[in-house]
Records
---
Amino acid sequence: MLRAYKYRMYPDQEQKMQLAKTFGSCRFVYNYYLSKKMKLYETEQKNMSKVECNNHCNQRLKTEFRWLKEIDKFALTNAIYDLDKAYQKFFKENAGFPKFKSKHDHNYSYTTNFTNNNIELNYNDNKIKLPKLKWIKCKLHRKFNGKIKSATISQAPSGKYFVSVLVDAEIQKLPHNDNKIGFDLGLKEFLVDSNENHMERPKALYKYEKRLKELQRQLCKMQKHSNNFKKQTKKIAKLHEKITNIRNDFSNKLSFRIINENQVIISEDLRISNMVRNHNLAKSIADVGWSDFMRKLAYKAQWHGRTYHKISTWYASSQTCSNCGAINKKVKLLSIRDWVCEECMSVHNRDYNAAKNILTQGLKKLGIA
């Protein structure tokens, strides 16, 4: 099974220069062949395949632009293949048309492939060997056993360097247990499960929103692309990175805890893209990170031999009494947090009741209950 391990790198000045050249060259090659493909289609109604583009790059483009020979060949090939993937998505999946890459995006990356031990990790010295860069100081905080397939080198807007090593490794399954859980995601509380556990959300953006506004106001008064402008941009990027790290740390720990403790996990299949259209809730929904949390649950369940199932979005989990099954349509209002069933007189907490209903419905769909 393919799994990526991400580490932070600490390149020296010479290695930083080589990385900058590689990022720029990959961007140049991507834009060059995007322009070439567009012109070819406009004039002759033809297309260049990724193999034709790669052959043209090796045979002609590197002769015309000799500085491309200083760059890792796999990095340029993968840039061309990434362009082809973007084209395929446009024609087959109705995605947006590929755009030209800009050096002002501040998200730089390239991918290189493993061959002849050109990628190695030294855990004793905390170093990693990469093509054209030799050994780089790196914080190797996690070990792995498996065959290296590729490595993606990136520079974040904050200026930090990272390497993500893709490994074909066998992931050990967790011991089987009989625990089953359903949970309801919310904004007031991040999660309430069928065992009546309440999990508060981290509120990462709200904690640093005031500081973020101050930095962005200061940025608006600076001359664009000046030295002070670049320094201020980096400060903002570091704060955004901190907010992202808080969210990731929370969702990673919680998702693994749920996977570790339960064999069957049930949740709702939320239509988050539709929910964020509500301008009163959009910021809170974006900050809470439901989509990323459910994505992590899905792949961790697959890794560790667990069952993760999503029930229909349209199932009235909050309005249905978990005791007798009667539906109270008044509970559709989000302001109602506790309610009494008119049929059996059971008192319900909105989210806990929904979590119990989600579990029951999910087990029915799986044929377990």
---
Amino acid sequence: HSHKRGQLVYATAGVLVLSTHDATYVVPPQRAVWVPSGTVHEARTRGRVSLRTLYLDDTVCASLPRHCMTIEVSALLRELIVEATRIPIEYDYDSRDGRVMSLIVDEIRQARTAPLHVPMPRHPQLLKVCQAILKDPAQSDVLDDWAVAAGMCRRTFTRLFRRETGVTFATWRQNVRLMEAMSRLANGQSVTAVACDVGYSSPSAFTAMFRRAFGVPPTQYCADTTH
């Protein structure tokens, strides 16, 4: 489905997974996803989820990107979102309500983006491969196996995959595992269980990968989602 207005979806608890034709986004607690007006998307939830959603008319949010993005929610933006839920649908742009909404747009525009999405290819055979990995990120099939599954030689597969997604196959699969791990951690699973479930040989290998991606170990990152 799509919306006539831009949509900011803020997860206060649980995990939201949002998919468009171009990418799949994971939204753990205390993060948000920006969805421009007219963007066809599908939303799924994991665990018990609590969400706050704002709809912004294009006349208000013309300065925001025309692509989806997952963002870190600052303390200020969090309080502004809560305040916005008390604002009527029809409000005076020159009033206090209008200034609150304008500040929300400013905060979205300046928010730090979170690396919690993977681009999706348009090529039908590559898309089937990506969908299979998204369903089971722990699969251990090597690149050559996936090339065969796509009916291509290794060289053609790697070249076409990078052209379609902008990243290598190895990076793409690692990011899928990161997103799956984030989803499971946010729902309370232990680091040890998550490491095994997303295909890592040990918790230490998983933690090292997570730290390289986010700059902090998984235990610290997940603790931040409760603040």
